[in-house]
Amino acid sequence: MFYTIAYLRARCTANEGGCWVWQGALAHGYGIVGPNQTGSTNVHKVMYILTYGKWEGDLTLDHLCRNRACCNPEHLELVTHLENCRRGIARCAKLTECKRGHPFVEGSYYIIQGKRICKECNSDKCRRYQDRRKAKARAALAELAEQAHMITEE
């Protein structure tokens, strides 16, 4: 299918930051269109090509607004993959709290592979995992006890 800027723009809503937020299907937060002969395609890439033409080299599109669902061509810039990663890391470094609202203060997080991991959220995650394992073990033990009880009755 051939897309036009007008067609794609009609499927977006504008927000206060000037983003054209895609209202169709999303994959990992990015707007997608398709499927076509080659599968689905990211909307922001289609919009960039329709506006500026194809790009050369190993460059990637960076959302200057940091909104993955945005397909406003004015919010897109061609950069190297390394620069795109640097910009994302710089944004994360400015965060003052985790996604569940726990403040990032000294001693409240681990740094693993360059990412801050909230200790409180990690403890909750480990606790839930252990609870699931214990429940599964209890269920397996109860099943074994039931089978043993059935054998002794025979």
Fold and architecture overview:
The chain has 154 residues and is of the alpha+beta class. It has 2 domains: 94 residues, Alpha-Beta Complex (Homing Intron 3 (I-Ppo) Encoded Endonuclease, Chain A), CATH 3.90.75; 57 residues. The protein has 4 helices and 9 strands; from the N terminus they run H-E-E-E-E-E-H-E-E-H-E-E-H. The model has no long low-confidence stretch (mean pLDDT 88).
Radius of gyration from the CA trace? 24 Å
Domain module count? 2
- Major sheet: arrangement of strands: 3-4-5
N-to-C span:
68 Å
Which structural class do the helices and strands define?
alpha+beta
**Largest sheet descriptor:** 3 strands, antiparallel
Mean pLDDT over the residues: 88
Classified by CATH, the class of the largest domain is Alpha Beta
| Global outline | elongated
Query: Do you know the CATH architecture of the largest domain?
Result: Alpha-Beta Complex
Number of helices in the DSSP assignment: 4
- CATH topology title of the largest domain: Homing Intron 3 (I-Ppo) Encoded Endonuclease, Chain A
Please provide the ordered H/E string of secondary-structure elements.
HEEEEEHEEHEEH
Low-confidence stretches are: none
Beta-strand fraction estimate: 15-25%
Helix content: 40-55%
Record field, number of beta strands: 9
